[in-house]
Design a protein that fits this description.
Layout lengths: L24 H22 L5 H34 L1
Helix pairs in contact: 1-2
């Protein structure tokens, strides 16, 4: 199993995005980078030939990654909508 990108942990302390209401450009870019990292991991993992045990772990990780990507995308869309309305 590939580790979660540790370099974002300092910028994104949790999956609760309430702290991002005052999102600045730097955090927004980090969210985009995290999305790209997750997409690359998913692509690389899809080409792995694994044992059934590892396949189960990868399946669970893919589900977790998918939920994380959806959460990031929805938060980015919400922030962009708020900025456009201002």
């Amino acid at each position: 199993m590939l580790p979660e990108p540790a370099r974002w942990k300092h910028a994104l302390p949790s999956t609760d995005f309430a702290f991002l209401t005052g999102m600045n450009g730097e955090i927004f870019v980090k969210l985009i980078e995290e999305l790209v990292d997750l997409k690359v991991q998913v692509k690389l993992e899809s080409n792995l030939k694994t044992s059934p045990e590892v396949a189960k772990v990868l399946h669970d990780k893919r589900e977790s990654d998918r939920r994380r990507m959806e959460l990031i995308k929805s938060e980015m869309a919400r922030v962009l909508t708020e900025v456009a309305v201002r």
